[in-house]
Amino acid sequence: MQTLTIIQPDDMHLHLRDGEALKAVLPFTARQMGRAVIMPNLKPPVVSVADAMAYKARIMDALPPNSTFEPLMTLYLTDKSTPELVREAKAAGIVAFKLYPAGATTNSDSGVTDLFKLMPVLQEMAKQGVLFLVHGEVTDPEVDIFDREAVFIERVMKPVLQQVPDLKVVFEHITTADAARLVMEAGDNVAASVTPQHLLLNRNDLLVGGVRPHRYCLPVLKRESHRKALVEAVTGDNAHKFFLGTDSAPHARSLKENACGCAGMFSAATAIELYAEVFDKAGALDKLEAFASKNGARFYGLPENPRSITLIKQPCPVEAAIPFGDGEVLVPMRGGEQVAWTVQY
Ligand code: NCD
Ligand code: ZN
């Protein structure tokens, strides 16, 4: 049987939520990832160093005994963020600020209304080596939802990179050939995270034969040519600029299977297994370790994880529903089906 041993991966984009939900989802990530970059879009969002430290303590409390998992904390950028906050964050070990354009996605009401007013804050991030994580979609109601990432590149990403050329930017959960190209053509201070869903699924998988609410996430799935471009990006000559970030974003089933279903796919239960499928199908399994375990750590200035994990090419069933606190369940990506690889725990 085919096996693959790689350095333990990191998840550079993860939603853990809080309270009972946190306790329900954290063990899935902690059993396979060495570290994860924790998204700050709680209700209310994580905006101060004190918020982030308190949230980190709750995450540590929710970890299974003897876990070596390490959460990497981030702050939610708002119109009120200051250069001084960037210095405080750096001193406290916070790795990044996350930009949510106001209204772009789940819990983004506190998001930034005009990024160009925050240039002194971005300049301080560049100076301190604090990363700038970007949800790269415009929220202009005139712009078609499938074009929001491409328009963001022209309206925001390019001007920001011009004004703060040494800012370390992660273009999060990229979904288009346009974003992949921007990252490849930019300097080594620009990288991107890529989710399993955007590498495995296209918008037909979301909409043909009926709406699949559990495949609805933001940025929304795109057409097949974009999915192919992403697979080429993570396996091609510039693959060092791309790394694993699941954007695993749990929501209760009742809020997904809903007349106004919310955005987010939960992939943490079988994250590395799904990525292994992508690289295997592309004939590029030898590139999985760099994507999952090296490129992200290098970009964040962290050492590679000391442990390793082993994957076996053997189908693994994915649970149809997972308890999610308060009598709720969540439906994972591939729920009730299989993934082609199994992690040997
Ligand atoms: C995320 C969530 O639910 O927190 N949803 C999603 O569709 N990805 C928010 C986000 O990262 O956009
Ligand atoms: Zn996210």
TrEMBL record:
Q: Give every Amidohydrolase-related domain span.
A: 11-309
Residues noted as binding substrate in the record, renumbered to the chain: H15, L16, R17, N41, H135, L218, H251, A263
Superkingdom of the source species: Bacteria
Binding of Zn(2+) 2 occurs at K98, H135, H173
Tell me which InterPro entries the record gives: Amidohydro-rel, DHOdimr, Dihydroorotase_CS, Metal_Hydrolase
Swiss-Prot/TrEMBL catalytic activity = (S)-dihydroorotate + H2O = N-carbamoyl-L-aspartate + H(+)
Q: What keyword terms does UniProt attach to this protein?
A: Hydrolase, Metal-binding, Pyrimidine biosynthesis, Zinc
Q: Which GO terms describe its molecular function?
A: dihydroorotase activity; zinc ion binding
Q: Where does Zn(2+) 1 bind?
A: H13, H15, K98, D247
Gene Ontology annotations for the cellular component aspect, listed alphabetically? cytoplasm
Modification sites for N6-carboxylysine: K98
Q: Mind telling me which Pfam families this protein's record contains?
A: Amidohydro_1
Per the record, the coiled-coil ranges are: none
Q: Enumerate the active-site residues.
A: D247
Name the coenzymes or cofactors required. Answer: Zn(2+)
Involved pathway(s): Pyrimidine metabolism; UMP biosynthesis via de novo pathway; (S)-dihydroorotate from bicarbonate: step 3/3
Q: From its record, what is one biological process in GO terms?
A: 'de novo' pyrimidine nucleobase biosynthetic process
This entry's Enzyme Commission designation comes to 3.5.2.3
- Entry similarity comment: Belongs to the metallo-dependent hydrolases superfamily. DHOase family. Class II DHOase subfamily.
Q: Which NCBIfam families does the UniProt entry name for this protein?
A: pyrC_dimer (TIGR00856)
Complex and partners: Homodimer.
Function, as annotated, reads: Catalyzes the reversible cyclization of carbamoyl aspartate to dihydroorotate.
Q: What's the protein here called?
A: Dihydroorotase
According to its UniProt entry, this protein's organism is: Neisseria zalophi
